[in-house]
Design goal:
The protein starts with 10 loop residues before the first strand and ends with a helix. The chain has a single domain (11-280), classed as Collagenase (Catalytic Domain). A four-stranded mixed beta sheet has the order 2-3-7-6. The chain has helices spanning 35-48, 72-92, 96-103, 146-168, 193-199, 210-223, 227-232, 241-268, 272-280; strands at residues 11-12, 51-53, 107-110, 115-116, 122-123, 125-127, 132-135. With 283 residues, the chain is α/β, with parallel strands linked by helices. Mean pLDDT is 86; it is low at 1-14 and 16-29. Helix 2 (72-92) crosses helix 3 (96-103).
C-alpha cells in the first residue's frame, strides 16, 4: 500500500477543542509597512479579510512551547503556496468563492518550525474555532518535497473542514457509521495505518473523534492522489482475513465519504468531487 506519511505514528494535525465560533482575534500590533505588508493587505486582508501573521511568534503557541519564527524570505513563497493550492481551488468551483469568502478564518499564522508534543507526536497545524489556522514548518518550504507539500495541504484542508461541522454540524448519524472503531485523543497513535483502515478510517488520527474523522476524510479526499486506490477500491478474490477486514473497512470509508459529500452539497453548495478535481489538477 502506497502512503505518503511514513511517520504517521508520530505526526498529527492537532486542533483546539473549542467549538465557540465567536473567537475574538486580537491584532498583533502595528509595524512599519513594507512591500510585503502592502502585498498582504491588498491580496489577503482587503480581498478576504485574512490577516497574515508572521511576526510575534510566542503569542501563537501555548506556554512552554517554542517555535522558530518564519524566515522573511519564505513568507511570500508561502503566501503564493496557499493562494494556489488552498484558495484558488475553491474559487474555481461552483459556490466555492461565496463559501470561501464567508468562512475564511480571520487570521493565518506562519510558524517556522514544527511544534513537538510531550506524547511524542508533532503538531502539523492548528485551528482555533474557525478564527485562525496555523501553518508550521514553513521555513522548510520546497514544492519539490512532496512530503512537505502534502503535510501543508493536509493541514489546511483538515482545519478548513472543521469549519463546516462547527457551523453546520456533522452529517446525520455520521458518528454511527464506524462507531466501534473510535479510540481516544490519547491513544489513536498506537494504531497503524492498516489497522485504521480496517476500522473504517483514513488515518489513525481520524479514530480520535467523529469531528477529527470528518476533517481527516475531507482532507485526504482532496489532497491524497491515491485515495480511491488505498481507501475505497475493494480487493477482489480475498484469500485472507486481513484482506476481508480491509474490504470491510473500505466499505465504511466509502459510506462516510458519501455522507460527507451529500452534507457539503447541502450546507455549502460545493461539490466535493469538483473541488478534489481542482486540487488534483494542481498537484
Amino acid at each position: 500500500m502506497k502512503r505518503l506519511y511514513i511517520l504517521v505514528l508520530i505526526l498529527s494535525t492537532a486542533c483546539y477543542q473549542s467549538e465557540d465560533l465567536s473567537v475574538h482575534v486580537n491584532d498583533s500590533g502595528s509595524a512599519p509597512q513594507t512591500a510585503l505588508d502592502i502585498y498582504i493587505q491588498e491580496h489577503f486582508t482587503d480581498r478576504y479579510g485574512m490577516a497574515i501573521r508572521y511576526r510575534f511568534v510566542d503569542r501563537f503557541v501555548k506556554p512552554g512551547e517554542r517555535v522558530a519564527p518564519p524566515k522573511l524570505s519564505v513568507v511570500r513563497p508561502m503566501l503564493d503556496f496557499i493562494d494556489e493550492f488552498w484558495i484558488a481551488p475553491f474559487l474555481e468551483v461552483t459556490n466555492g468563492k461565496v463559501f470561501f469568502e464567508n468562512h475564511v478564518p480571520a487570521e493565518i499564522v506562519f510558524l517556522g518550525g514544527l511544534i513537538y508534543n510531550n506524547d511524542g507526536t508533532v503538531t502539523l497545524g492548528t485551528a482555533d474555532a474557525g478564527a485562525q489556522i496555523t501553518f508550521t514548518n514553513v521555513n522548510a518550504i520546497d514544492l519539490n518535497d512532496l512530503e512537505w507539500r502534502d503535510q501543508q495541504l493536509h493541514t489546511v484542508y483538515h482545519e478548513f473542514a472543521h469549519i463546516v461541522h462547527q457551523r453546520y454540524k456533522l452529517p446525520a448519524a455520521f458518528e454511527t457509521i464506524a462507531a466501534s472503531g473510535y479510540t481516544s485523543a490519547g491513544s489513536w497513535f498506537n494504531l497503524t495505518d492498516t489497522q485504521a483502515i480496517e476500522r473504517g478510517f483514513v488515518s489513525p488520527y481520524a479514530t480520535s473523534s467523529p469531528n477529527e474523522d470528518f476533517a481527516e476524510t475531507v482532507a485526504f479526499y482532496l489532497f491524497y492522489t491515491d485515495f480511491f486506490e488505498d481507501f475505497i477500491n475493494q480487493e477482489s478474490d480475498c484469500q485472507s482475513a486481513n484482506c476481508e477486514n480491509l474490504n470491510a473497512g473500505k466499505a465504511l470509508i466509502q459510506k462516510k465519504l458519501s455522507a460527507i459529500s451529500e452534507h457539503y452539497k447541502k450546507v455549502t453548495g460545493i461539490d466535493l468531487d469538483d473541488l478534489r478535481a481542482a486540487v488534483q489538477a494542481k498537484l
